[in-house]
Amino acid sequence: MTREREGAPASWEVFLRPRRGLAHQHVGSVRAGDPHAALLRARDLYTRRGEPLSLWVVRSGDVHAAAPDEHDPYFANAEHKPYRYPHQFAPLTGGGSDGDHDH
């Protein structure tokens, strides 16, 4: 984690939800002293192309992420939840639509 210098503008992560998108996407970062100024900078830098549905800024220090060396605890298979895996279920047999119907 990088520390902000005393008196230096904070770093903010910028997220846009494009008009045709379902979710916000990280598009970059800006430096600003407060959330309002961060939104204005983000608007000026990242909304020139198209008209996004919404714009978010999040102070960089408030974003928490899993580091690559922590991959397994966060993204490993959930072996303790066998219902998530298809091999735990018996295949359906008989009575299905297999295309061999008499007409």
TrEMBL record:
Pfam families: PaaB
Domain of life, source organism: Bacteria
Matching InterPro entries: PaaB, PaaB_sf
Protein name as catalogued: Ring-1,2-phenylacetyl-CoA epoxidase subunit PaaB
Organism, as annotated: Actinoplanes teichomyceticus
